[in-house]
Amino acid sequence: MTRDQAAVLHAAAGAVPAGGAVVEIGSHHGRSAVVLAAGLREGARLVAVDPFPDDWRYGAAGTEQRCRANLARAGVADRVDLRVATSADVRARWDGRLDLVYVDGKHDHWTARADLGWADHVTPGGWVLVHDAFSSLGVTTALLRVLATSRTLRYVGRTGSLARLQVAPPSTADRLRLLGELPWWARNLVVKVLLRLRLRPLARALGHGDAADPY
Ligand SMILES: C[S@@+](CC[C@H](N)C(=O)[O-])C[C@H]1O[C@@H](n2cnc3c(N)ncnc32)[C@H](O)[C@@H]1O
C-alpha cells in the first residue's frame, strides 16, 4: 500500500457516518485495518476479515497475533472486530448495511469475483475499494467480469492499483474509463514477468524501479 492509497482509505473511512460500518477483506498484519480504523468517526466500526491460513503466501504462524498486536499498538483495537474466517463465510451470514468495503483478500479470479459481491450490502452512494485491481490477472478479470454487466456498480478511478468503485448506476463513460486502464494493467503484468525472470533493468525501462510487484 502506497501513502496515496492509505490517504484514500483514510478519507473513505472518515466519510462513513457515526453508526456506520466498514468491512475489510484481507487484513494480514493489520496495516490497512489500522489506516481504516484510524479514519473512522466515533461510533463507526470496522469488521476485518481474514482466515489467516498458514498454508499460503501471507500465512505464517502468529500472523493473527501480530495483526491484533498492531491494532492494539495503534490504539484502534476497540473499533475493529477481527473475524478469523473467510470472506465467503462471513458474507454468507451478513445481514447488515455497509458504507464501505475494502477488498484485499485472495487474488484469484473466483475469490475476487465473490468478494465483489460484498457490494450488494453497500448503501447506494457507498464505496468499494479494491487493492491490486490492475496488477493481478485474477483481480482484474474479476473486475472486468462484474463491471461489464453490473447496473449498480460504477468504476470511478484508481490510485495506483487501488480501484474506487461506487454503488451507483454506471454510465458509458464509467465503462470506457475502466477499459482505458487495460494498457496500464498489461504493462504491470509484463513488469511482473520481468521481475520473475530477474530482468529488473527491463522493468526499469518500463518505469518500474521497485523490486516489488507493481501495486
Ligand atoms: C495482501 S494481504 C492483505 C494485506 C492487508 N490488507 C494490508 O494492507 O496489510 C491478503 C490477505 O488476504 C487473506 N485472505 C486469503 N484468503 C482469504 C479469504 N478467503 N477471505 C479473506 N481474506 C483472505 C490472507 O490471509 C492475507 O492476509
Automatic annotation (TrEMBL):
One Pfam family here: Methyltransf_24
GO terms (BP aspect): methylation
Keywords: Methyltransferase, Transferase
UniProt KW Nucleus keyword: no
Superkingdom to which the source organism belongs: Bacteria
GO molecular function terms listed in the Swiss-Prot or TrEMBL record: methyltransferase activity
The keyword Methyltransferase belongs to this UniProt entry's keyword annotation: yes
UniProt name for this protein: Class I SAM-dependent methyltransferase
Organism: Nocardioides luti
